[in-house]
Amino acid sequence: EPEVTIVSGLRDAVVSEGDDVTFRCHVSHENARDVEWKLQDVALQNNEMNEISVEKGKIHTLTLRKVTEQDIGTVTFRVGPHTSMA
Predict the structure, then answer these.
(1) Is residue 29 domain-resident?
(2) For 14-44, what is each residue's pLDDT tens digit?
(3) Beta-strand (E) ranges in 1-86?
(4) pTM of this prediction?
(5) Is position 1 within any domain?
(6) Closest CA to 25 of 81, 65, 85, 71
(7) Alpha-carbon gap, residue 76 to 86, rounded angstroms
(8) What's the CA gap between 78 and 61, in Å, rounded?
(9) Where in the numbering of this chain does the Ig-like domain appear (predicted)?
(10) Angle of CA points 75, 35, 47, to nearest 5°
């Protein structure tokens, strides 16, 4: 199985309180396993506040809904041994 790498990483974002913000990470292969999103070193799950999805098989997205001051911090995307932060 080929190693999945990050083709295009996360970009920093500045948003206003109450807005949504989306982060995207493009990986080299479809159906990547061992993928994880974190905010401030806390693993995120797909729920009403965090929308985690995959577009076109290779573009992993995280949307944080109605952000607050508590959401300030580092967002991390990890696939296998590779990470990207914003």
Answers:
(1) yes
(2) 999 999 999 999 999 998 989 999 999 999 9
(3) 6-8, 21-27, 35-39, 42-43, 50-55, 59-64, 75-79, 82-85
(4) 0.94
(5) no
(6) 85
(7) 7
(8) 12
(9) 2-86
(10) 65
Beta strand 50-55 with 59-64 is: antiparallel
Number of folded domains that form the chain: 1
CB atoms within 10 A of CB 70: 8
Give the gyration radius of the chain's Cα atoms.
Answer: 13
Rounded distance between C-alpha atoms, residue 85 and residue 11, angstroms = 8
Residue type, 63: T
Q: With CA atoms as reference, report the closest residue to 31 among 54, 14, 47.
A: 54
List the domain range (segments joined by +) for residue 22: 6-81
- Contact predicate 31/57, CB 8 Å: yes
Of 73, 57, 80, nearest to 5 by C-alpha is 80
pLDDT one-digit tens code per residue, 58-83: 999 999 999 999 999 999 999 999 99
- 31: phi then psi, degrees, rounded to nearest 5: 55, 40
